[in-house]
Write a structure and sequence with these properties.
alpha/beta, three-stranded antiparallel β-sheet, 15 strands, nine-stranded parallel β-sheet, 18% helix
């Protein structure tokens, strides 16, 4: 049986690299790791492809599945017991099935635009994307080792110790009013369109800092920003000229956009 031909036939109309019909290299890479599970909803163009060994669970547009497909995963597990329902499906749709081992998540935990409303206690993640969700607060026991994207949520505070600052912080259009003193963010810090009114002392940003469209009236002279500072449409930028601001902020070595 020509499995690649079957993959192309079943994957017609999708964006899967395993079904292009142009090259079988991607298909061979996947199938050599383990089986590909393909589901097609009768009478529609709705299709899903799962590869447990590659941690690849995608819809027909080759986008990570966000909708509830836990029944499909349960079906697979009922036949092949070694294939457990993926963590992200249990986290969103069946949190009662989570185990202690589940809570240490490598790589990116991508929950953006899902229906999730809260995170479990004692969760440890490398990178976390909860943008455009209904999550309103972060558990104090949460540990984020890399970057955090909580943009377009109602989160109003970052509990001390939760965000380690080892990656970028994207918090655009949140309700965050402050961040800790003596904080270093190794990457981007986007606080635009937040109600924040002041920056902490000794804040260091290794990439760019965006505080445009905030209520910030003053900026500590010990602020350090390496690449760029965006302060458009703020009380601070309306009060001073660019030359005055450059003299006031010697630690901002990148460009200033106002």
């Amino acid at each position: 049986m020509d499995l690649y031909g079957v993959s192309c036939e079943l994957g017609s109309g999708t964006a899967w690299c395993t079904a292009t019909g142009n090259t079988r290299d991607h298909f061979d890479s996947y199938i050599n790791s383990g089986p590909l599970f393909i589901f097609i909803k009768p009478g529609s163009d709705e299709k899903y492809q799962f590869s447990y060994e590659r941690n690849s669970f995608y819809d027909k547009n080759d986008q990570q599945i966000k909708e509830n497909t836990i029944n499909l995963f349960n079906f697979i597990q009922s036949i092949y017991s070694k294939y457990k329902t993926p963590f992200f499906q249990r986290l969103i749709y069946a949190p009662e099935l989570l185990t202690t081992d589940d809570l240490n998540v490598p790589g990116i935990l991508d929950l953006r635009r899902t229906i999730i409303k809260s995170l479990p206690d004692n969760l440890i993640v490398t990178n976390l994307d909860i943008s455009s969700t209904k999550i309103k607060s972060l558990p104090k026991s949460l540990q984020i080792l890399g970057w955090l994207n909580c943009s377009f949520t109602e989160i109003d505070t970052l509990p001390i110790g939760v965000f380690q600052g080892h990656g970028s912080l994207y918090a655009k259009s949140t309700k965050i009013k402050s961040i800790p003193d003596n904080f270093t963010i190794y990457g981007v810090c986007d606080l635009s369109y937040t109600p924040i009114e002041a920056l902490p002392n000794n804040l260091t940003i290794t990439s760019f800092l965006n505080i445009s469209n905030t209520k910030i009236k003053s900026i500590p002279d010990n602020l350090k920003v390496r690449e760029a500072l965006y302060i458009e449409n703020t009380p601070f930028s309306k009060k001073y000229t660019l030359e005055q601001i450059k003299k006031m902020l010697p630690g901002v070595t990148g460009r200033i956009v106002m």
